[in-house]
UniProtKB/TrEMBL annotation:
InterPro entries: GntR_C, TF_FadR/GntR_C, Tscrpt_reg_HTH_GntR, WH-like_DNA-bd_sf, WH_DNA-bd_sf. Residues 13-80 form the HTH gntR-type domain. Pfam families: FCD, GntR. GO terms for molecular function: DNA binding; DNA-binding transcription factor activity. Coiled coil: none annotated. Transmembrane segments: none annotated. This is GntR family transcriptional regulator. Gene3D superfamilies: GntR ligand-binding domain-like (1.20.120.530), Winged helix-like DNA-binding domain superfamily/Winged helix DNA-binding domain (1.10.10.10). PANTHER family: GLUCONATE OPERON TRANSCRIPTIONAL REPRESSOR, TRANSCRIPTIONAL REGULATOR, GNTR FAMILY. It comes from Pyramidobacter porci.
Amino acid sequence: MIMYNPLHPAKNMDLRQIVYEKIKQAIVSGIIKPGEKLSEVELAEKMAVSRTPVREAIRQLAKTSLVTLTPRKGAYVSLPSISDAGALYELREDLEMFAAALVSVNPPEKELKEFLEIFKHMGNDTDPQKYLEEDRRFHAFLYQSSGNRFLMNSLQELVDVINLYRPYSLGDTEYIRHLAEGHVEIIEALLARDEKRVREAMRAHIRMSRARLEAYLNTHTSERLPLRP
């Protein structure tokens, strides 16, 4: 007699998770832009799946604030608002200052020196996508290196929304150099194991990003904000 195994691979669940991750990545990377409507039919066709896992993925994404469900209109990729940006970056500032302070106790020198070389060689002529990629990698590395799993989990819950907002914080490309210099200051403070300096550098970096984001949102009030390529 063959017994039913409740731990048998859940293929349908796997498919739903795959669809969810693919749509989420398309949103965070800017392939599907803020303000754009999510069509279940089009997404299902592109991924060669039925509409059911797409519908479930969209509902799940709505819980993360990446997607907004509008009655009788459908689902849209969330548009950043000034009030939401302020609330998010206030929380981000506190959490990332704490994470960086924890890392300063025993900084992973090899990886930090590699990041230091990357950001030292960035300027206003740096490809914005390259900066964003390294920026995401660096902050994710700090989260993981904090050694506090509860803090890391809290930051991981926010990271998708932070990544949605990140491209707007660039402003014009002239700010890439300033933002890269902020990373250099954070890393040098970490390598010096100077917790106070680390906190101040992280606060300054997050506040600069927030200021650029709010300035951009203040001057772009159309229904669909253009995401930087």
